[in-house]
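Input/output pair, single chain:
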Amino acid sequence: MFISGYIGDRVPLRYFLSIGMFGAAVSTSLFGMAFFLEIHSLAYFIIIQILGGMFQSTGWPVLVAIVANWFGMSKRGTIMGFWNWHTSIGNLLGYLIPGIWAHPDSWGWSFLAAGFIMFSINLAIFLFLPTDPEMLGLPSPQHQERPESTDSKETKAESESDPIEKTSLARKKRKRPAVKFFQALKIPGVIEYSLALFFAKLITYTFLFWLPFYVSNTRVGGVCLSTYEAALLAGLFDVGAMIGSLLIGFLSDIIHSRAISCLISFVLAIP
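Output:
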């Protein structure tokens, strides 16, 4: 993921994201093709799994950068909370689609269906995704609210009245130097938020991977749930995650503190 972020700072985001999603769609489909081609090699699945992880790692850093290009700081908590629904919606589809075909005689279709969905969305992203407001002739969001001096306002007005100068300023913005690894670590909050996300993901993936297995192999109310019923039950976790992400994001915009909002959500998650 670090390598993806490093590359994403230096290449067009739309093309890089499209390449990553295309590779992820192909790798997912290759899992399904193993069923139809009767491939039983462990090495095959290990290699495809590694390739799939590499391609999927392009998503998070690139998409965060695109969202940051479009929205300023004042409402970013709510925007990111709503944007984070993609994780839960993807998990829900990941529960339901395999649940339909999760049988010894048809499991390959679950991977092919997921790969087809990913490929279709990737095609729409490649054709229509604007990664920056300037691509549509719109002004960039106000990321930092600072009072402008009279001189700076006059300079800005002169620059905006001159189309050549305006184009030059836009190019300077796009050519700002990319942040290096150790520079990123020195940004206040990067390490702390990374550790917080690590433990949050630890809990999330415990529910994601083990809850369906547990409820389908352990008697609940005297009976074991089917694979599809277990997927529906596990999906309730992501329904709560969608509501929580939006509420916590909205709260962070109101109190103007991301750290306190994270602390509140972690404390509420303890029970």
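The chain has 13 helices and no strands. The first helix runs from residue 2 to 8.
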